Amino acid sequence: MEIIISNDSKIPIYEQIKEQIKSKIITNDLKEGNILPSIRTLAKDLRCSVITTKNAYEELEKEGYIKSMPGKGFFVCEINKDLAKEEQLNKIEVLLDKAIDIAKINGITKKEIKEIIDILYEEDK
Fold this sequence. Notes:
Blueprint: H1 13-26, H2 39-46, H3 50-62, E1 66-69, E2 73-76, H4 81-105, H5 110-123
Antiparallel strand pairs: 1-2
């Protein structure tokens, strides 16, 4: 499982791990029933603390994305795709709201914002 963490990011490492695993579950890269690496294995692979990976897994379990089976490991749960998508849309709305506030303060038009979004969206393809 490929996870990329940045020590330079302002986002805590456990949250970077959590969000990337969550994204893989939402996009079906990780499917219901898939086993995840053990806390120790993931920590070793990412060269981070086992406490960090433990925190990421605990958060994912609280949010219903994975479940722990004692003695067997952590497994991907069946998730409500609509609910997961709604959660992601809410995050996007918050970020776009901040971007729009910045744009308005600085006299940047709606058209210019749309152009930026179009460019950025196409760069990922």
